[in-house]
Design goal:
15 helices; binds guanosine-5'-diphosphate; single chain; binds magnesium ion; alpha/beta; 9 strands; 9-stranded mixed β-sheet
Length: 557
């Protein structure tokens, strides 16, 4: 055995001897992965940037479902295997073999709504040459990535990301959410590969502009040096079957990573994993040693204090909830006012553009053809305005979210201080739960109200029958009322999307904090129960256990 895997087995053994089965499973799985020389390249970025299509293009086959509403909790790992096969791990710990073509059943919102099936992770094995050197592709569907998730499954995966491929786009260009996401990733791994996807949708000038803008923002906001940005089109890579734009360079960069840096990536990953496992284990051991040294009454008093302390912090969280709710209501009002101003400012101008457009149509364009054109133009005009406006809302939402996070961080710091005062061992990754950026799962998209855009049979006949100027006026009127509907619907949807995301983010912060508190108290109670068991057996047993724990502790170092 090489050294890292020796350390892994040692730590796994310590976890087993402490009776921490869940942790032991995690340590063993990580050790096994690192022994096999596997490292994780995670594709991260907002929903619909083309992460899945990019993976498919690299793998040369449609493994990941594309263009779907994803499930946030399931992580998909694609790795090398002589045979094509896939298996699904359920929350129960049970594995189920499935065909590669079946994985959409487990990872898409349509077929597995709200992860009803309880999927923890999906593993896909492919005989892909690109993966032959130990590189694994990880799709963290839907959310910005595992980095902003707050479910146990996905949070547990964050420390296992070795390289991040950040998939960015230009419609809109890199958003505040994405920057926050990249900053969160940068605290975990310095290796970030930047990709600007969907370049086929832009003119060459727009591509350069988007790339330069993204590079500048990334340079300003990330601590370390960033990779160059690869300008690609996953669509062209899939369809053309030969490399376009920076595709060949991008692929080569990944190949070189696998060939040249695979070993050092695995070594880095081992170091990170071992530091983390060691911290968790020594915290547990210290808690148990403490419980053995104190008298029963002292420990009982302490547990009571811890319980009181968490109950207090529960109350404090509830109060924080009310305060934040008030903040959110103010935010809602502000957004509503923004929306009204936006409509008041933009509508007259768009009405004018619409009239000009209709007037500019050759007089031979009449009836339903003219109506269809006018409606399409309305969709185009409104979409452009609403998307631009939606991007402008981001800073408001992020500002408020920062406020909300600050509230949580302050409360949790008070709580953690209090616990330390009562002598509780607070694991070093406690603060990590407060890191996620603003939740970005749903994501706003423009709704063109297609059913309303196509005329009813009555409308169609009426439009065909009313001739000349009166006909044009009629078309203008209905296009204008369509314009109003489009504006109203989509601006409300944009506002609601931000509201939902804030509420969701807050909910995740809260549940993350609660889970961390519960774990703290559980650890103290576990230590107490163990100590009592040994004490019941007499002073010799206590001495034996103390020696055993000290032995385990030195095995962690
Ligand atoms: N035009 C164009 N469309 C793309 C490209 N990459 C992905 N798409 C489309 O964008 C949508 C979202 O892609 P998907 O891979 O599911 O995005 P994900 O949510 O980031 O995994 C799909 O409809 C794809 O067909 C690209 O390079 N060019
Ligand atoms: Mg996807």
């Amino acid at each position: 055995l090489n050294e890292p895997s020796e350390v892994g087995h040692r730590l796994g053994g310590v976890a087993r001897e402490l009776g921490l089965e869940e942790l032991r499973r995690e340590i063993d799985a990580t050790t096994e992965r690192l022994e096999a020389g596997l490292f994780h390249v995670a594709f991260v970025g907002q929903f619909k940037r083309g992460k899945s299509m990019l993976m498919n293009a690299l793998l040369g086959e449609p493994v990941m479902p594309v263009g779907v509403t994803p499930v946030t909790t399931a992580v998909v790992v694609v790795q090398h295997g002589r045979e094509r096969r896939a298996r699904v791990e359920l929350r129960s710990g049970e594995w189920q073999d499935v065909a590669v073509s079946e994985i959409a059943r487990f990872v898409t919102e349509e077929q597995n709504p709200s992860n009803r099936l309880g999927v923890r992770r999906v593993e896909v094995l492919l005989p892909s040459e690109l993966l032959a050197n130990g590189m694994c592709f990880v799709d963290t569907p839907g959310i910005g990535s595992v980095f902003e998730a707050n479910t146990a499954e996905t949070r547990g995966f964050v420390p296992q990301v070795d390289v991040a491929v950040a998939v960015l786009g230009s419609d809109p260009p890199i958003s505040g959410d994405e920057i926050a996401l990249l900053a969160a990733i940068a605290t975990k791994t310095p290796r970030i590969v930047l990709v600007l996807n969907k370049c086929d949708r832009l003119t060459p000038g727009e591509v350069e502009q988007a790339a330069a803008f993204t590079e500048r923002v990334v340079r300003e906001r990330l601590p370390g040096p960033a990779s160059r940005i690869f300008k690609v089109s996953a669509k062209e890579a899939v369809e053309a079957g030969m490399p376009t734009r920076d595709w060949a360079d991008f692929r080569r960069a990944l190949e070189e990573l696998a060939r040249g840096s695979g070993a050092s990536l695995v070594a880095e990953a081992s170091r990170r994993a071992h530091a983390r496992f060691t911290a968790i284990l020594t915290t547990e051991i210290d808690e148990r040693l403490g419980a053995l040294t104190r008298s029963t009454t002292e420990t009982e008093k302490r547990i009571a204090e811890l319980r009181a302390c968490t109950a207090e912090s529960e109350r404090s969280l509830a109060n924080l909830g009310y305060l934040l709710k008030a903040e959110e209501d103010r935010f809602d009002l502000r957004l509503e006012r923004e929306r009204e101003t936006f409509l008041a400012n933009e509508r007259p101008a768009l009405e004018r553009l619409l009239r000009e457009y209709v007037a500019g149509q050759p007089s031979s364009t009449r009836g339903n053809r003219l109506r269809a054109r006018a409606f399409r133009e309305v969709q185009r005009l409104v979409e452009e305005r609403v998307l631009a406006w939606n991007a402008q809302l981001a800073p408001f939402a992020e500002e408020l979210y920062r406020e909300i996070k600050r509230g949580f961080v302050e409360r949790s710091n008070v709580f953690v201080e209090e616990l330390r005062r009562h002598g509780a061992a607070v694991a070093p990754d406690f603060e990590a739960i407060l890191e996620p950026p603003l939740h970005a799962r749903r994501g706003f998209y423009f709704n063109g109200l297609e059913t309303q855009a196509s005329p009813s049979p009555f409308d169609w006949v009426a439009t065909a029958l009313v001739p000349g100027a009166a006909g044009r006026r009629r078309i203008e009127r209905s296009a204008s009322s369509f314009l109003a509907d489009l504006f109203e619907t989509n601006s409300c949807r944009a506002v609601n999307d931000y509201k939902d995301r804030l509420v969701e983010s807050r909910r995740r912060l809260e549940s993350g904090l609660r889970a961390a508190m519960r774990e703290l108290v559980a650890r103290a109670e576990r230590a107490h129960a163990e100590a009592r068991r040994h004490r019941d057996e007499g002073a010799k047993a206590v001495e034996r256990e103390t020696d055993r724990l000290k032995g385990l502790r030195s095995r962690c170092e």
